[in-house]
Amino acid sequence: MTLTISRILHAGYVFECEGTRIAFDPVFENPFSRNCHAFPDVRFDHAQIRAVRFDAVFISHFHDDHCSFDSLDLLDRATPIHIYCMFDELFDMVRELGFVHVHPLHIDVPVPVGAFTVTPREAMDADVDSMFHIQAAGLNVLNVVDSWIDPATLPALARFALWDMVLWPFQTMREIEVLSPSRAVAAPVQLPEEWFEQLAALKPRYVVPSSCQFVQEPWSWYNHAFFPITYRQFGQEMGAALPDSRIVRMNPSVSFALDHDGLKAAPPLSWVVPVGEQDVDYQYEGHAQAPRTADIARHFPPLTAAQHARVVHYCESGLLDKYRGMELPEESFFETPRVWRLSVFDHEGQGTDFHYRIEGDHIELFSGVPAALSWTTEVPVARLYAALELGEALTSMYLRMNDSVFDAQTEADLLDAELVDDPLIRCLFNDVFGAYQAAQLRRIKERG
User: Fold this and answer.
1) How far apart, in whole angstroms, are the C-alpha atoms of residue 437 and residue 443?
2) Could you read off the pLDDT of 129-141 as tens digits, one per residue?
3) Which of 16, 19, 101, 293 could form a disulfide with 80 if both were Cys (CB 3.0 to 4.6 A apart)?
4) Measured between alpha carbons, how far is 86 from 78 in angstroms, rounded to an integer?
5) Contact criterion met (CB below 8 Å) for 228 and 286
6) Coil, helix or strand for 311?
């Protein structure tokens, strides 16, 4: 018996065995997650996808690059959808999309589907992620998705060694460091030591460097700032560390037939269409000069008057209400009195400053210009509007923090501050679930 494994995009895969076809984290969009452009580049034949029938779809977690309603909208509504998620709202929204068989996944509880048994395994952040243990044709495949393996979970997974294949998230991502590039510490361009230990314990026959690898808009400085680790480096270092394993690259559409004797090329997915060179690799420039937020904002089209007014109202009122309703994290930078400046830049690069006085859970607008600042945040107005109304993710908002030099005490306090303690980040993303999917669902329903 043979198991066929095909790559869709990012963490998306199709598995086929003995007439059963299942998909994992299917995303049929480029760009996906609003502004993540596939790298290598692909397009999708949506007419063909609508004709494909899956016996089940498995979604590892709710993040929008794994659970996209625009992609699910292409599937037959009788398709069973299995999701690992702690929030009932997501299941309700998938049912509102029209799916009639929507099931929660539970750690270590197997789900039989035809020739397959799929078992969610515990990831390090068990409140968010899951991994998948796929069994078919007498083979064991571990899909780590883009999570991390908890050291306490590793012995349970090692009991299945030799694994026939492991789909391994091979890139570290600097989505936080780019928020404050002038203060970021240079990234170690090396594979984490625990990866070698964990893969050695799993003893895989084949390792597929999986997940990540995307770029932003063509002009974006992020295109050389996100991913320090390349396919080439992973292949060389992990190949040397695991001489009994074979490192196999799977670009979008590529398929392999796996059995006990080995791995062979199989016909590619016809509805995933490669565009241009496919064996590309990320070019990381750890000290690339970040352009000014004003210059970045010029790349975006102007908002309408109503959209601009929505942003201004949020900065003057909605943000304050949201902040006051949240609980401040322990040992927050904002426990002591601070003055925060939020600068919002329009399509002409013109900035509007909003000043706030913050102490603990209290926030108020500061009239006039303060004598000294404690924290600064910059953002293009188009991206702030998109975060409010369209589910824009932090990854592509082009937020910029603390490019100023503050007084000595503030600088000392900032050494222990967390960037995600930023008031705008907290107000936009803390205690907010499913904004991206909710915006997608509204658009889908409006289209009829």
Assistant:
1) 10
2) 999 999 999 999 9
3) 101
4) 23
5) yes
6) helix
Q: Does the pTM of the predicted model rise above 0.85?
A: yes
- In order of their start, the domains of the chain are 3-274 (3.60.15.10), 293-447 (3.30.1050.10)
* Cα 13 to chain centroid, rounded: 16
User: Helix, strand, or coil here: 140?
Assistant: strand
230 vs 237: CA distance, rounded Å: 11
DSSP state letters, 312-376: HHIIIIIHHHHHHTSPPPTT-GGGS-EEEEEEEE-TTS-EEEEEEEEETTEEEEPPS--S--SEE
Angstrom distance (rounded) from CA 357 to CA 365 = 6
Q: Are strands 130-136 and 13-17 parallel, antiparallel or unpaired?
A: unpaired
Kindly report whether the peptide bond that precedes residue 31 is cis, defined as omega within 30 degrees of 0: yes
Handedness of CA 309, 310, 311, 315 (dihedral sign): positive
Share of the chain above pLDDT 70, in %: 100
- Work out the mean pLDDT of the chain and round it to a whole number: 94
pLDDT tens, 311-338? 999 999 999 999 999 988 888 999 999 9
Alpha-carbon gap, residue 120 to 83, rounded angstroms: 10
Question: How many beta carbons lie within 10 A of that of residue 418, not counting itself?
Answer: 12
